[in-house]
Amino acid sequence: MNHFDVLVIGGGAAGLFCAATAGKRGRRVAVLEQNVRPGNKVLISGGGRCNFTNVGATSANYVTHGSPHFSKSALARYRPADFVALVERHGIAWNERKLGQLFCDHSSKDILRLLETECSDAGVSVKVQCRVGAVRRAEAGDGGKAGWVVSTAQGDLTSDSLVIACGALSFPKLGANPFGYRIAEQFGVPVIPPRPGLVPLTFAPAELAAFGSLSGIAFMSISSVADPAARDVPSFRENLLFTHRGLSGPSVLQISSYLKPGERVRFNLLPDHDLRAIFAENRVGGRELRPLLRQHFPDRLVSLLDAEIPLGPIAQVPGVALERLARRLHAWEFTPAGDEGYAKAEVTVGGVATEALSSKTMEARAVPGLYFIGEVVDVTGWLGGYNFQWAWASGFAAGQAA
Fold first, then answer.
1. Which of 10, 110, 116, 272 could form a disulfide with 92 if both were Cys (CB 3.0 to 4.6 A apart)?
2. SS3 label, residue 53
3. Is 201:265 a contact under the CB 8 Å cutoff?
4. Residue environment code for 217-247, b if the CB has 16+ CB neighbours within 10 A, otherwise e
5. Surface-to-core class of residue 84, CB atoms within 10 Å of its CB (0-12 exposed, 13-18 middle, 19+ buried)
6. Is domain 2-195+349-401 in CATH 3.50.50.60, yes or no?
7. From CA 380, how far away is CA 386, in angstroms rounded?
């Protein structure tokens, strides 16, 4: 039976980074990865360029059902600048895009190569095609501490510390499964019911019939929950994309992580202008409504509004009709029928409850030696590199302690 100081279940971003961090402390570490290679989600991220962090990452950029301050400790001790410094030490060229998003110039493979090199240099053993069947507590040894026995397809392994870094339910085609949640529940660690996050929203049949003709068009919008007074939810100024099933684009993906079932979502479809002011300015000179709207909206959207757009010059249109149209376009609301599910979700919302974990070490408070990091934890980042930064920060926190 092979014994390690630390076993890490899951060879993704968080698992590999945690393993390298622990290995640099002189710990004997093994990573157990079920796939034929580690880091599959790293490779497909950012369109193959890996949006590896965001320079503005703070706890305000994460969704959690527990204390909104839980992620502060880990994020403060391993910052975006720390990972950028590591990227540069490995000679990886990178660039900054909008809203503080950092990408590789060449390929996501550069980040995976960095993680594998860090693990190799730290003496970490990465075992691929190593599916874990069961986990149980080992009897206390001479030191008086209970360890772990992990049964795998390659035999039983033991360790003093066990880190669960096997991700969540998004991207099932890459092998995502609820194993991490099952381990938590096995040892009495509470789990917030998971659901898809950063996911496209779907129309009900009525909306699909009304807006299906808009599939493929995109424009800037501000998304928000229709009743923001009910709770503290941010709004997002990003592109909105109509699809053949509903809505996507960054504006939609961002708000989806906050939206509860049955809640209405609101979009300002012209965030940079005030339609009421535009209408007022153009009530002279014989300007007509349709050509004016076509200066600000795609033709297909204006055509869809034809039934609501009065004929003739703006000066002849009743004020109540102009107000109704402005309200429709600045505060369009609908109730999503659902979402595209885990197959299209970037992340999973929910997971291992943060109140059950130490924010400093990611160790389960009631189960010494058991750690949870990355996406399996109920900490979900915004779109734009925030989830990778959580992987690095939570992995570092556990790697310093395990």
1. 110
2. strand
3. yes
4. ebbebbbbbeeeeeeebebbebebbbbebbb
5. middle
6. yes
7. 8
User: Residue 58 and residue 135: Cα distance in Å, rounded?
Assistant: 34
What is the band of 309 on the pLDDT scale with cuts at 50, 70, 90?
confident
Where does the pLDDT of residue 143 fall: very low under 50, low under 70, confident under 90, or very high at 90 and above? Answer: low
In the CATH scheme, what is the code of domain 201-339?
Answer: 2.40.30.10
Query: Average pLDDT in the 49-65 region?
Result: 97
pLDDT in tens, 375-389: 999 999 999 999 999
> What are the sequence ranges of the domains in the chain?
2-195+349-401, 201-339
Residues 198, 57: contact at Cβ < 8 Å? no
Is residue 283 scored above 60 in pLDDT?
A: yes
Burial class (CB in 10 A: 0-12, 13-18, 19+), 184: buried
Give the strand pairing for 370-372 and 155-164.
Answer: parallel
